[in-house]
Amino acid sequence: MRLGLNEHDAMLRKPKPGDEYAIYRLIKQSPPLDPNSIYSYHLLCRHFSDTCVVAEQQGKISGFISAYLEPNNPDTLFVWQVAVADSQRGKGLARMMLTTLLASPACSDARTLESTVNPSNQASRRLFEGLAEQHGCGMQESIFLGEEQFGDEEHEKEILLSVGPLNTESRNQEK
User: What one-character-per-residue DSSP string does the chain give?
Assistant: First the structure.
């Protein structure tokens, strides 16, 4: 699928093995996101590609969403990370990736979307608030991890955002 993005085109697709290093670099250049190992991004590209999305522009990865259906609650899509290259921020790429992901066959039964957000990450918070508005539903929040749970590592608390129930009719119209 090709989506217009100002003067550039973005190809939204599933990640594949071979994308992991570019994804790792994108995450590393996207504070406040915590980069994970290249191995973990390989697993996402290999085992969870149906619930992740990559934005590619001019042969380079400019966006990535990692997500999975919760094993004990398969109608909940947990969005782990949303990253957009600095040059593409503010152009709606994250929202396009999220909308495309929710419209995918793998996510068709998802009624709730959950994600964690640091208090300082207002861009992510706005993304999920916009999603709730788009679907005409609420957004609940609770503490997922407190600062003390990170031990010696200095880390902000992680707030769990829960958006739902998602409107399946509007998702099918967006395909």
Answer: -EEEETTEEEEEE---TT-HHHHHHHHHTSTTSPP--HHHHHHHHHHSGGG-EEEEETTEEEEEEEEEEETTEEEEEEEEEEEE-GGGTTTTHHHHHHHHHHTSGGGTT--EEEEEE-TT-HHHHHHHHHHHHHHT-EEEEEEEE-GGGGTTS----EEEEEEES--HHHHHHH-
